[in-house]
Write a structure and sequence with these properties.
- The protein is mainly alpha-helical.
- It has one domain (7-446).
- It has 17 helices and no strands.
- Helix 7 (138-153) runs parallel beside helix 9.
- The radius of gyration is 22 Å and the shape is globular.
- Its main location: membrane.
- GO terms for molecular function: antiporter activity; xenobiotic transmembrane transporter activity.
Length: 464
Amino acid sequence: MLDKNTSKFTLWVLAWPIFIELFLQFLLGAVDTLMVSRISDDAVAVVGFSNQLFQAMTTLFMTVASGAGILIAQKIGSSKSGDARTIAIMALSVTTLIGIVCSVILFAVPEQIAAVLQLPENLLPLAGTYISIVGGGMVLIAMMATMSTVIRNTGNTRAPMYVAIGMNIIHVIMNYGFIFGAFGFPQWGLTGVAISTVVSRLLAVLLLLYIFLRSFEYRVKWREFRVFDRPLFGEVLKIGWPLGVNMSCWVFSQLIIYTFIATLGAAELAARTYMNTLESFCFLLGSSIAMAAQIQIAHLFGAGRTKEAYRSAYRALGFGTIYVVVNGFILFVFGKQLLGMFTNDQTIIAIGASLLGMNLILQPGKMLNMALGNSLNAVGDTRFTMYISLGSMWLVATVLSYVLGVHMGWGLIGIYSCMIADEYLRGALSYFRWRNQKYLRKAEQQAEPMNHHTTPIEPIPAQV
């Protein structure tokens, strides 16, 4: 019989609230895209471009938040809840400060940033408005991301889900009001969408803060935010900085790829934004399983249950691959009709439809990469995932994208081909690294002086 604490860390118990939360986040993005498309395709291109910029900025604080999340799950697994609590407090303090700096920069010089990133000149005024408002609230994104990560890694994946539900409802209602002038709202178009985004995030932060303060055995006091434990924060950074580099590689490579697409034209940029929305839906369940596996494996690793941690990665990979293949096939069959919901521009629909078959190939590679990459991160092997990201994302996904997509004129087809190659290459390297069990064996060797009955891990077939 599993005790209450252990039962919180089973794969399904962790995964289903994460899935619902991610689904609602996707819904938020999809509704944004669908409603903004009623303004113009240019507005959609601006939102898609801006979101890539915001993701690039989030890597600055997610370095701390992600490292803290993994370490919190490990500390709880090893019955060091006091350390987990201290780590959570420090993570929120540091990321909030980073978020404030990001907010000031994006609010002060939005058009200049967009121009440097090669956004077409006719889109700069729209981008300036949207980036200054939503980017000015970057501190809210920092606080939301950190508190959600901390709360999830304590085993409570339901609370962020409930907050996401409330945030989505408020955002959709306000979006509708601002875009169409309903419910007594002024008809402010893209400016209204930006305001709606910031207000819904502010309310979400207040709810998450209430939950965060009560997520550990003893309620977090305000005065504790002045506490800074250097050795513990050093542990966070040891895990977190390679994760930050890893995330930076992905986000900045995607941002650069967006600049490549921007040079192809506004239609290609809008098509990529629409396809990104559909692809996100396709991968939602796979992503939630991979995230749940990371929490579960970190907890098992902290508890010294290395054999179970090893098996969990393959179980997550097997289930996730089935789901993403099914979803990819559904999108392949109905994708053109779904694109028609967002735009009437037949050029944009044709460009997006040409990528549906490639997406079906892409999804299993993403699942392989994310499931096993997250598993390596969960046991602290973050430098390896960083090294393969530095090599593959920049050389294959970015440089080769320019060569094939822009220089050789293959367009989005060439760029997608490079994205697929990148996912499978990193996935394959992560697979062989996980099979090697380096960190799991090291943990067992360290535990042997305390437990002479520990036996080495036997190789286990990578099947579910």
